[in-house]
Please model this.
Amino acid sequence: GNSVTQMEGPVTLSEEAFLTINCTYTATGYPSLFWYVQYPGEGLQLLLKATKADDKGSNKGFEATYRKETTSFHLEKGSVQVSDSAVYFCALSTGNNQGGKLIFGQGTELSVKP
Amino acid sequence: GAVVSQHPSRVICKSGTSVKIECRSLDFQATTMFWYRQFPKQSLMLMATSNEGSKATYEQGVEKDKFLINHASLTLSTLTVTSAHPEDSSFYICSAPSGGSGNTIYFGEGSWLTVV
Model:
């Protein structure tokens, strides 16, 4: 079946450090891939997405490239800030996006220290 | 501003009672909405797909008689947790696709349910 696997957290970094959060997926067809962010006490916000192989999604300094050959969609940011502390979820939707049905990874908590 | 709104954001209810959570799309019509549940420090698990004008589709292992879903209009879906128990305490969040060429998926703010 379809699934998403993320690196386990929590991840603790110092401000301005480089961030990578690994995400790999298993899916039939050609999924769309997403990264969502959940700040403490809030709902989910879409961070970035990619809909086909080799697409790069980017937003707020974060980026992720859809790698079909490695079935990966790793999230990166060159210099993290304290305000980036949150839980990050990798997700996929399959086929024609199934109208919005998402399968989430387990989430990775990021804590950035000043 | 928010394009999908949930209410209430927090609710505490007594064991054995029922509680209703509303999910509204504010700027668009949504024939389909999705309900997820998230336990502390865990991922979001899809519970059911809410379909306007027809029955909801439940994921395997989700009790449809316990989690009643009503999608009465193109902008409103409700989730009712019936005969709630402490193990139902969780974060419930809905989403709705906006449709169109972008088909952006918007999430509500989520609802924290505590059953005491």
